[in-house]
Amino acid sequence: MASQSRPPNASESGGLIVVDEEDTRSVVMEIIKSLGKKLMQGDFMDIMRVSRPASISYPMTYLQAAVQDFSYCLFLEWASSTQDPIRRLQLVTAFMISGLHINPMKMKNKPPLNPILGETYSSQREDGTLIWLEQTCHHPPISNWEMHGPNGSYTFMGHGTLVAGLSGPNTLRAYKRGKHIVKFPDGGVIEYTTPHMNISGLVYGDRTVNFIGQCEVKDPVNMIKCDITFGGYNGWGKWFKSKLSSFFSSKKAPSDFFEAVIKQYSDNSDKTIEICKGGGSWLEYVEFNQEKLWQIGMETGGTWTDSETFLPSDSRCRPDLGHLLNRDIPNAQAAKDTLENLQRHDRALRKSHK
What we know:
- α4 (74-81) runs antiparallel to α5 and α8 (319-325) packs antiparallel against α9.
- 37% of the residues are buried.
- The chain has 9 helices and 15 strands.
- It has helices spanning 22-34, 36-40, 62-68, 74-81, 85-98, 102-107, 237-244, 319-325, 329-352; strands at 16-17, 120-124, 130-137, 142-148, 155-168, 171-183, 189-192, 196-200, 208-219, 224-230, 257-266, 269-281, 285-288, 291-295, 305-306.
- It is globular and about 55 Å long.
- By secondary structure, it is α+β, with helices and mostly antiparallel strands.
- β4 (142-148) and β5 form a beta hairpin.
């Protein structure tokens, strides 16, 4: 039995079941068929190199979607206001995990538009938070961002290469390779990595989004880190059983649950000292020492809005996005083709002048 805070479309075994649309499933089937020879050879390739039709795209660009991942930036403000490095590490961990559910719930089974080289986007919040993003590479697709908290409370910067590939005929796996760095006015620095996204049911079965694998939140100044393992807390013994006995009739937690262990580490040794434990689910909550820092449904403290001033290269100026927002699929496809062809032409010119 699931807890009351668990979303109704969360799978009992783990992850979020997204609404399927037959036109989307059929288009995905055609893409997989077009890659059939490579799949038979075991080459599941980077699907970011495959042009997707506008009909299965969500009316948002990748840069706009990336901003949504950072919606719970109030955790970064709280992290800035504490001098306790362990508490700061916990709050940055909550910031990272709390944003994981937003895009899957919003976009469901439709991906955002692929970014165009040179594309930019800027957004702001009522409290003065500002963020700027730019697509700085085409292949591999690299996005850079810089976010400033209100009153200089923090600077959050980084870059990411989105890698998405078929890990089988019915499953897609994606992850962001790059840096996430938070800097605080007192000289504190925290870096983190993100888990892999796994989408199953591309062709048959329930289409389910989940996060899997391991990631890390690290404070190199104080030499502490939080190791996070997604996959249902298997093997956590008494702690695991006590946490889930009131939520689930099964002894095995859904795979959207994770365990988090904060450790002290040393550059001179592989040994670490365990400081505290935490856990939760990217679909439910984040807690440390039995204190819930985040719970799904919690207010974000503000909303992102388009910046009043923006460059001509801003995402909102893309004609294909405008047509998608108006549900004009034929013109959206034509505009998308024009942009992608221009990008390929520019890339060929750069190569010829090397």
